[in-house]
Amino acid sequence: MAFPTETVYGLGADATSDSAVQKIFDVKNRPTINPLIVHIADFEAISDVADLSSDPRAAQRLAKLRHFWPGPLSVVLPRKVSISSLTSAGLPTVAVRVPNHPIALELLRAAGVPIAAPSANPSSYVSPTSASHVEKGLGGRIDMILDGGSSAVGIESTIVSLIGEHPTLLRPGFVTFEQLQQILPDLQERTEHSADQPVLSPGLLREHYAPATRIALRSELSVTEYPKRVGLIAFDQSGASRDDFAYAAVSVLSQHGQLTEIAAKLFAAIRAQDEMRLDLIVVDSCPAVGLGRAIMDRLLRATAKFS
Ligand code: TXA
Ligand code: MG
After folding, report:
1. According to the model, what pLDDT value does residue 195 have?
2. 88 CA closest ligand 1 atom index
């Protein structure tokens, strides 16, 4: 079933069951090389999912990050054998987090098992931040959608691997690189093909989050190059009125360009404009620091398909 979390809606199944997890891959049409995040109800349940005794260094790092849970941070640890290897796409590791959402937590407690849950969208489309987004993408193919309203964070969790010589940021998110670096000073950024590491996170190498309509960064095109029907996603009110161009649609994500608000509304705006039969969607940019790093990561993935 699909359920709300503070980041995006997830499509959940019993993480210990091969047949249940297989259904997630089938419904999403997700390549089986792309592992899933496992959700648990509290920090103590980590021992059901991860084998901390096999990697004391990872366990020490995890202890320092404990206060981020429940919250939008996933950590990669050695996998316990009870977790379906399909969940982890055959990797010896598992990504795990405690979501900060009352419905998700109640579901986890009721289920009594760890729940594997990718974002509840067809593979490679924009992640859902409302129950109706899930319904549009997967309705009719899943048993149930728990409706918890709009997701507060709006972009997927930060993923950090705690395994290996240095902890590594695999996916930027609401918990920022800078915040994590204060606690883990040797934190490094993911390099796509570093020789000393195997592919750390296969799914993350793929293009993601793209709408069907062509989407581009506003900074990369001049209005003279615009086709006829163009939608604008502006980060603030002043950006909305900057161009001398009659946009077919304008979405202002935040009156004063506040990053938390931009993140919360970005995916819903992309989806709404994707339904408007536009020739092009142009979207603002921001500096890739703090939460801006996650916002620009998602936008570069969305636009990569078209550039
Ligand atoms: O906010 C979120 O994380 C949401 C909500 C539902 O919790 N979930 C989510 O799942 O974004 P998904 O499947 O869309 O993204 C999970 C990513 C995958 O792209 C995969 O690369 C990475 O997590 N991942 C999962 N297990 C991993 C592992 N063992 N090692 C490295 N990366 C892993
Ligand atoms: Mg996803």
Report:
1. 42
2. 29
